[in-house]
Amino acid sequence: MASYISADELASIVGDPAKTPGVDYLIVDARDEDYQIGHIPGAVNVPAHDIRLRAGKLIDKYRAVPLVVFHCALSQQRGPKSARIYSEIVQARLETEQPGSPLAGQTVQVLRGGFVGWAERFRRTKPELIEDFDQARWDAM
C-alpha cells in the first residue's frame, strides 16, 4: 500500500526551482473530466480507468524518477487505486530487472486530500501551484 504525502510536503517539491517534474518527481492525476477544473503544475493526467493500459508506458518513460505521487479529487478512491495498480506493475517488472535498476528505488505516494485539498490550501495563497484553474467549474462542484 502506498504511503501518503501532505499538500505542504508536495508543494515544497513542486515549488523548488531546483526540481523538475518528470525528472525529480512525477505527479499522476487520476481524475477524468474533473481534471479540466485545474491541476498541479507538471501533472500528467492518466484517468484511473486507463491506468492498467497506460502504466507500462509511464514506467518506461519515468523509470528513473525517484518519487511518483498519485491523486484524484479527494484521494479516496481513484488516486489510491491507481497508485496500487502502478505499484503492482512496478513490482512485477522488478522481478525481471537487473540489480541496481532505478525503478527499484522509486517511491510511490498518494497526495492526502487530493486536488480538492490542494486547491483549498493554495488557490488563494499560492495560485502558481494550480494551473488552468476554472473558478466557475470549481464553484459548480
From TrEMBL:
Its EC number is 3.1.3.48. Keywords: Hydrolase. The keyword Hydrolase applies. This is Cdc25 phosphatase Ibp1. The keyword Hydrolase applies. It comes from Coemansia helicoidea. It is an enzyme of class 3 (hydrolase). It comes from the Eukaryota.
